[in-house]
């Protein structure tokens, strides 16, 4: 049936999964799909395209390449509950990489992303009521438990955003060891971070038409001062990082702390919102045997 993935980066959303995808794609002997979010096993419209379509994404890989893809929808189980059953039916032995980040930072980054995509139009506090997935996708133990039940812990590698930023080469080596890569990977520090929410502009159809039109683009660049262009650009950017109400923030921390306590028990550490960044960035941690 041709090449198929040996490993998949399954999430979480807004945790540098795109950057990890690109770094792996640079390594000789590793093939990553050009389409970074196939979402084949999660999204019904993609799954309906059939397995031949999915396998075609790996058609350009060499016979001895390690093949991978990245789809953060695979750990959006609240939204895509059929994912794991579909994935296990076709790829029962696949290795899975799950990247995590401080749950509140991840939540805020997702909010910014969906705001720029015009999927959310309200301030962050009402958005938390209207879009429960903002919270759910940061409940890492909840997302992982069904994967453990189906694939076993040994097939899931925990990676942390904060440590990936601080020790990118070491973490890339750790990921490559997990997937069975037998060469020395090299992290490319010149590769820009992918898909950074804070640098994205809010979608606007008429603005994009004006900006991308070749003749208008030339006129704009030649006649409109850069300071004016930047001021106009700011109309579609978020002026400051969203601030969650203090009482709601306390309640969120309690929710996340309960989930992190379970995650920490699997990792052999005591994990909470307060110590998350310091603990996960200080050393590489993996699942305990207990």
Short description:
The chain has helices spanning 17-25, 44-47, 51-56, 83-90, 103-116, 124-130, 133-136, 140-151, 161-166, 168-179, 205-212, 214-223, 226-233, 246-267, 276-282; strands at residues 7-11, 30-32, 66-70, 95-100, 156-160. The protein is globular, with a radius of gyration of 20 Å.
Strand content: 5-15%
Radius of gyration in whole Å, from Cα? 20 Å
Number of strands: 5
Q: How many structural domains are formed by the residues?
A: 2
Per DSSP, the total helix count is 15
Cross-sheet strand order for the largest sheet: 2-3-1-4-5
Average predicted local confidence, pLDDT: 89
- CATH names the topology of the largest domain as Rossmann fold
Topology as a string of helices (H) and strands (E): EHEHHEHEHHHHEHHHHHHH
Question: Structural class of the helices, strands and pairings?
Answer: alpha/beta
Instruction: Please describe the biggest sheet, giving its number of strands, its sense, and whether it closes into a barrel.
Output: 5 strands, parallel
Helix content: 40-55%
């Amino acid at each position: 049936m041709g090449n198929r993935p040996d490993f998949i980066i399954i999430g979480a959303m807004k945790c540098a999964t795109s950057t990890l995808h690109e770094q792996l794609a640079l390594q000789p002997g590793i093939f990553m799909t050009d389409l970074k979010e196939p979402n084949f096993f999660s999204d019904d419209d993609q799954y309906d395209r059939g397995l031949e379509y999915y396998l075609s994404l790996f058609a350009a890989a060499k016979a001895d390449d390690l093949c991978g893809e990245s789809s953060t929808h695979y750990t959006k189980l609240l939204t895509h509950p059929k994912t794991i059953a579909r994935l296990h039916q076709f790829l029962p032995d696949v290795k899975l990489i799950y990247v995590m980040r401080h749950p509140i930072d991840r939540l805020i980054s997702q909010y910014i992303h969906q705001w720029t995509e015009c999927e959310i139009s309200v301030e962050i506090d009402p958005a938390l009521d209207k879009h429960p997935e903002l919270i759910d996708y940061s409940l890492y133990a909840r997302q992982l438990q069904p994967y453990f039940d189906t694939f076993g812990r040994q097939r899931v590698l925990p990676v942390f955003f904060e440590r990936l930023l601080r020790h990118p080469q070491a973490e890339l080596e750790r990921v490559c060891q997990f997937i069975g890569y037998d060469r020395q990977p090299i992290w490319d520090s010149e590769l820009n971070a992918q898909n950074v929410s804070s640098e994205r502009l809010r979608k606007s159809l008429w603005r994009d038409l004006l900006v991308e039109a070749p003749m208008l683009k030339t006129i704009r660049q030649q006649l409109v001062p850069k300071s004016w262009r930047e001021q106009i650009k700011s109309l579609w950017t978020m002026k400051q990082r969203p601030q969650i109400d203090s009482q709601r923030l306390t309640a969120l921390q309690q929710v996340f702390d309960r989930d992190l306590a379970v995650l920490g028990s699997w990792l052999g550490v005591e994990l909470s919102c307060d110590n998350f960044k310091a603990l996960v960035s200080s050393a590489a941690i993996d699942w305990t045997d207990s």
